[in-house]
Amino acid sequence: MINKQVNSVAQAVANIHDGATVMIGGFGEAGSPIELIHALIDQGAKNLTVVNNNTGSGHVGLAALIENKRVSKMICSFPRTANSTVFPELYTKGEIELELVPQGTLAERIRAGGAGVPAFYTATSVGTPLAEGKEVRSIDGRDYVLEYGLKADFSLIKCLRADRYGNLVYNKTARNFAPIMAMAAETTIVQTKEFVNAGEIDPEVVVTPGIFVDQIVTVDSPLHESELVAAGEVYP
Amino acid sequence: MSEEQNFGWNREQMAERAAQDIPNGAYVNLGIGIPEKVVRYVPEGREVIYHTENGLLGMGDAPEPGMEDPELINAGKKNVTAIPGAAYFHHADSFSMIRGGHIDICVLGAMQVAENGDLANWSTGNPDAIPAVGGAMDLVAGVKTINVITQHVTNKGYPKLVEKCTFPLTGVGVVSRIYTDLAVIDVTPEGFKIVELAPGVDFDYVQERTGCKLIAA
């Protein structure tokens, strides 16, 4: 019988190795798999390349992973937001590498990585510093920049509801990068608020089909990053 | 206060003026800052669908206090609501709407706009700054009409409408129309053309505060 469920967040992240590329879902706090990130901090893997739209806020979740010196490189579109001090400080000191990618190009690189498309052309960033050094091709009279698909060893994502096959449904704008990151990683690890019997999710409304999912752990009362940040929490 | 109202447009009035140009049925993406205010001023009788690039079409107003949902936010990470008939989608679909030319109008802020429509709004190019771009480059590359709302000059009084941008570009030749506190200005093949002057403002006053030659209405 197929059952992708694991018993704990610690078990879910146990195989993440030093030097791994890890995609982490979320746009700000919406969709951030904070319990999986904290388990990864406890687990100790370091020298990670992390793909996320942002760099976390306060001293919890992704910001805590960075603050604990586990991340050597961030691939993201918007590394500074309100309450985001950890990344800017390390970046200013030259202690963390940044690959800045336009948000839509980041999303499409992830999608392409998961879809077996090695590269694509986009008009985004043509004529800007972010296109410097990249191949430009004119197609039907318009210039496009060559961008490469992005894959990862692991994805850590959060959803609302999952079954044992790994079929997933998300909550509102917490969906953001999760469905494409699930496709782009060798191993996709999901934290779900609800775990339901197979058949309880209408096949017509499955957002991520189970083929893209490897491990599922139930976190029925997930923490909210903004509440932790407001309370001044520091992890660990 | 009354002097403010008799001379130029304030931030609310700039947003109100920009809203007049959004037609019924448009799919619209609004940037952070003054552009967010445009929602409040769309003329009655027009139905406009707001897109937020983090994955929602049919974005509604801010929620009532106490009704905020941390998993329902806009691109500026502010709490929002979803209208009846809204749709959620993932980031690659969201940017397919943008890059694929499905969004009709985007209203953005600017640091500089050049007379050929070049836009700079993401970085000063200062080597000490933390670069951050978000979805701006995708929006200007893909949305059919890019309109800008901005103060006419910087806090220090320098023109933001210039012959050539000195800050790093967000996109080349992308801006159609600019709403400032002094005027509505179109980007034309001949350069910046005044469409409308704000109350109490004359052409010479705007020209003195612009980094290149303006064409009168």
CATH homology group of chain A: Glutaconate Coenzyme A-transferase
CATH topology of chain B: Glutaconate Coenzyme A-transferase
Q: Just name the CATH architecture of chain B.
A: 3-Layer(aba) Sandwich
Compute the number of helices of chain A. Answer: 7
The fourth-level CATH homologous superfamily of chain B is Glutaconate Coenzyme A-transferase
CATH class of chain A: Alpha Beta
Uncertain segments of chain A are none
* Terminal residue distance of chain A: 37 Å
The spatial strand order of the largest sheet of chain B comes to: 4-3-2-1-5-8-10-11-12-13
How would you sum up this structure, described in words?
The complex is a heterodimer of chains A (236) and B (217). By secondary structure, chain A is of the alpha/beta class. Chain A has helices spanning 9-13, 34-43, 61-67, 86-92, 103-115, 178-184, 225-230; strands spanning 21-24, 48-51, 71-76, 97-100, 119-122, 136-139, 142-148, 152-162, 168-169, 185-195, 215-218. In chain A, the strands form two sheets. In chain A, strands 1, 2, 3, 4, 8, 9, 10 and 11 form an eight-stranded mixed beta sheet that branches. Chain A has a three-stranded antiparallel beta sheet with strand order 5-7-6. In chain A, strand 2, helix 3 (61-67) and strand 3 form a beta-alpha-beta unit. Chain B has 217 residues and is α/β, with parallel strands linked by helices. Helix content of chain B is 17%, strand content 25%. Chain B contains five helices and 13 strands. Chain B has helices spanning 2-6, 11-19, 91-99, 136-142, 203-208, and strands spanning 27-30, 49-52, 56-59, 82-88, 105-108, 112-114, 119-120, 145-149, 161-162, 175-179, 183-188, 191-197, 214-215. In chain B, the strands form two sheets. A ten-stranded mixed beta sheet of chain B has the order 4-3-2-1-5-8-10-11-12-13. Classes of the chains: A alpha/beta (236), B alpha/beta (217). The interface between A and B is large, with 52 and 40 residues.
